[in-house]
Amino acid sequence: MTQSGAAHGDNYLNHEKGIKSWLTTVDHKRIGVMYLFTVLAFFLVGGIFALLVRLELFSPGHTIVGPQTYNQFFSYHGTIMVFMVIIPLIPSTFGNFILPMHLGAKDVAFPRLNLLSYYLYIGGAFLAASTMAFKGIDSGWTFYAPLSLQSRASTTLVLTGAFIMGFSGIITALNFITTTHKLRAKGLTWDRLPLFIWAMYATNIIQILATPVLALTLLLLVAERVLGIGFFDPTLGGDPVLFQHFFWFYSHPAVYIMILPAMGIINEVIPVFSRKTIFSYKAMAAAIFGIAIVAFVVWGHHMFASGQSDTASFLFSLITKLVGVATGIKVFAWLATMYKGSIRFNAPMLWAMAFIFVFTVGGLTGIYLSTIATDIHLTDTYFVVAHFHYTMVGGAITGFMAGIHYWFPKIFGKMYKEGPAAVACALVFIGFNLTFFPQFIAGSRGMPRRYYDYAPEFTYLNQLSTIGSFMVAIGFVVTAIYLFQAMRNGAKAPANPWGSATLEWRTASPPPHDNFSTDPVVTAGPYDYSSIKV
Amino acid sequence: MAEVAVHGHHHHAHHFESSEHEFVSCKQGMWLFLLQEVLFFSPLFVAYAIFRSLYPGAFMEGHQYLDWRMGGLNTLVLISSSLSMALAVSGAQRSQTKRTVIGLSLTLFFALCFLVVKYFEYSHKLHLGISTAGFFSLPGIHDPKTPLFFSLYFVMTGLHGIHVIGGMIAIIWVLRRARRNEFNAQYNTPVEMVGLYWHFVDLVWIYLFPMLYLVG
After folding, report:
1. I want to staple A390 with a disulfide (CB 3.0 to 4.6 A). Which of A161, A339, A394, A450 is the partner?
2. For residue B21, with 0-12 CB atoms within 10 Å meaning exposed, 13-18 middle and 19 or more buried, which class applies?
């Protein structure tokens, strides 16, 4: 296992052969690639449900399905996208593949635990998805009591699946934190860590502190349905609002589990393609941690309309606005990094710029929602749906797209074509705004979310949305086509195609089994391009 | 992590520099795991605090159906098991395999005693009709929220019981390895990790006992 000085041409992809060598691998790179394909397969499924939702909403009343089926469509779309796609999207793919290489390590601290986390994810995901073969799910991705308690759908099964997936995330998180502490290369001090590592570290802390709370809450829902414990059931003396507190104590930090790794990727991409060191490294790292810490004390802003006390609402509203401060620091620092840089508009940079634009809209509309007076008006309208998608799709998915285009040459050892990449990015960017911007308008005019039907005056806005969603879908299909083509017969990638300064680019593309032929030594910061020629 | 060759000689995994490096990494991972365990139990403590402040009468009435002598006995049993586990760990650190084996066996025995006592408590209550709120059938209850107290009781002690069983499985695993003489002063990571976990399980009970049995 510890053969060093691998023969020329030996890499992690061909080091061992056969499907069994993949399924039993403890190599973080292979586990990362397995996660990548699995998560993307669920992204396809969740995306199909999104299109079905949009098709149904193309016209008021019955368009393609009845109301019960529609409930199932949006419940599956939300559950799959949140629990099976966006949460593991970046931590489990690039976290696995890139994090140890960023650190100059040979592997994560606990490689077998890493493989276990993959199988927990797969097991939980299939358990949750198997509900499609039974009675489906119909209480959204939030499983609010008492609806989720009364639901006759396969809610117990999907909750169990999400519970298991939660533990997959927790194991991954403790693995990465230990790796970051114990396996850094010589000379890689804390102030030389790439900001992607800082973002992952903050994400992992949230996963360790928040995910167990959700896990237990889902377990309580299961116990509620099976054993009748009654914590959330008013007929048995419990309180449904307690469920909301537990749920959002996790699920608000969880949106930072989804967004911080994406910010981490943008931190890597912007300096490389601007040929400038990142603006205010320390403020960037502090902003990441600021968001992670504040994340734990803002959950009540989901409950302004749930009968929470005015004092609590006031404090939650005030603290929530701090997130805007930290996010503002990041956005301005990205722009300041680009300012007077020699910008190259390669695909990763295009996606990073799309990220900044879309995420800023998502962040700014968050200020509307954290303000109690406007939130009372906007609660449970399409404004919230639009805000959520601007941060989650515009944030997490766009950040992931920047990441896959940035690290594709490293992971697969091949170059993709820039032309189709630019077209796909434009399609998704325009289609995305066409889908969700009209929802801000519809929402502020009072169109409620999750309803099967809507008033006729919203028809025009909904049709724009549906057309936009299909543009997004076409953009992703184009991406899949040129990336698969590149995997099969793309030009061979050099070790460092973009002229990056972080450690993963010092080794061959794709990397050898042990990552580095000699143990790397770090002598400069992660964004010091003075000695790197493009 | 642990690739064990013949005669109990341990080789550290290829991505660590030394056995010591591997040990401190495992220890940090274990502490992070225990941290998430604390958070895993935390919503139950929050639910307890909320329901107790809302319905103090239910807690007063409910706890009278719990026998503090049984709970006290189990507290003693678990504290003893922490002692025997500490002996096992120190045995492993000093290459005293016999002490490790005896310590682990005793811990396993205490864990089993705990579960037996718990079994009698549970079956007695279910026999009386004391169950979770949805299936509660004990007549003569004064406070309508008392069944909710028993939901808390069953969920909190049940989840703790599952952790005890998990700990027993882990103890059996290290006990088998200790009997094969795999642990010594240079390599005893699994014993120490299982020990940390076991102390955590004990600690949870130390909180549960007064919160549930000693309300009055």
Report:
1. A394
2. middle
Of the pLDDT bands very low, low, confident and very high (cuts 50, 70, 90), residue A2 is very low
DSSP A51-95: HHHHHHTTSSS-SSS-HHHHHHHHHHHHHIIIIIIIHHHTIIIII
- The strand ranges marked E within A426-494 are 491-492
Interface confidence: ipTM more than 0.95 = no
Residue B23: band (very low, low, confident or very high) from pLDDT cuts 50, 70, 90 = very high
- Pairwise CB contact (< 8 Å): A237 & B147: yes
Least Cα distance to A102 among A526, A533, A529 occurs for A526
Give the N- to C-terminal CA distance of chain B in Å, as an integer. 49
Contacts of A406 (CB under 8 A, 6+ apart): A265, A268, A269, A272, A348, A498
CATH of domain A19-506: 1.20.210.10
Minimum mean pLDDT range among A148-152, A254-258, A335-339: A148-152
Sequence ranges of the domains in chain A: 19-506
The first and second tokens of residue B182, run together, are 């795999």
Burial of residue B42 (CB within 10 Å: 0-12, 13-18, 19+) is middle
Give me the domains of chain B, ranges plus CATH numbers.
3-213 (1.20.120.80)
Burial class (CB in 10 A: 0-12, 13-18, 19+), A342: exposed
Q: Is B133 on the interface with A (CB under 8 A)?
A: yes
Q: In this predicted model, what pLDDT tens digit does every residue of A204-248 receive, in sequence order?
A: 999 999 999 999 999 999 999 999 999 999 999 899 999 999 999
- Express each pLDDT in A378-393 by its tens digit: 999 999 999 999 999 9
Answer whether B41 sits within 8 Å of A181, measured CB to CB. no
CB < 8 Å from B in window 126-185 of A: 170, 173-175, 177-178, 181-183
Q: How far apart are CA A82 and CA A87, in angstroms?
A: 6
Per the CB < 8 A criterion, the answer to whether A449 and A425 are in contact is no
The pLDDT assigned to A531 comes to 86
Predicted confidence (pLDDT) per residue in A25-39, tens digit: 999 999 999 999 999
pLDDT of residue A532: 87
CB contact under 8 A, A106 and B132: no
How far is CA A373 from its chain centroid?
Answer: 30
- Give yes or no for residue A54 having a pLDDT over 80: yes
Please state at what angle helix A240-274 crosses helix A281-294, rounded to 10 degrees: 170
- For residue A178, list chain B residues with Cβ-Cβ distance below 8 A: 25, 28-29, 32
- Smallest Cβ distance to A183: which of B15, B144, B147? B15
Question: Which phi and psi angles does A15 have, rounded to 5°?
Answer: -60, -45
Rounded to whole angstroms, the Cα distance separating A233 from A144 reads 11
Q: Write down the pLDDT at residue B9.
A: 57
